[in-house]
Amino acid sequence: MAGHCCSSDTHASQAVDPRFRRALWIALWVNLGMFLLEFAASLTSGSVALLADAVDFFADSANYMLSLYVLSMGLLWRGRAALVKGVTMVVFGVAVLGKAFWSLTSGATPEAMTMGMVGALAMVANIAVALLLYAHRTGDANMRSVWLCSRNDALGNLAVMLAAVGVFGTGTAWPDLIVAAIMGGLAIHSGLAVVGHARSDIAEARACTS
Fold this sequence. Notes:
Alpha-lytic protease prodomain-like; 6 helices; elongated; Cation_efflux_TMD_sf; Cation transporter; Cation_efflux_TM
């Protein structure tokens, strides 16, 4: 019988750890607030790396909202939600790489001080969120995608700060563009990992209902 090889939450709602739900809500509001701040800062500073991080904050906010929506659903729907998030991460990465390439032709140098200050503030916020979600990093594809988002954000903020130092030291836009390209590549790599895990969860759920 299929039921002998499947956990009960494969095709039914599961009990949700209230700590994880609360962590998701905190992560959602932190990411929305940082998106607004970084987007404004990217426009005033001309930094592609800050813009990439701001868009990442917005994508993560949508991902956290989606995670909250499917949190109590069965494995199939949680796997489908993770699949959407994984594809979104890949698309974001490709878009950032495209933006960095396009910016090569402009020749404008971003404002390093704004990059550094906003990057530092964003890093503090994301480290706090990452620590909050760390205990839930080994769950299903949906939970893993949430952890990867928070981890990538913290790494991205550190990279933005390093880019600010590089821009200040060299007086060129190259450090900003290099960091933006690295952030895009990291988003693609993590997105593909989430997609792979999500497809595994979906296959497991379908096998248990067949």
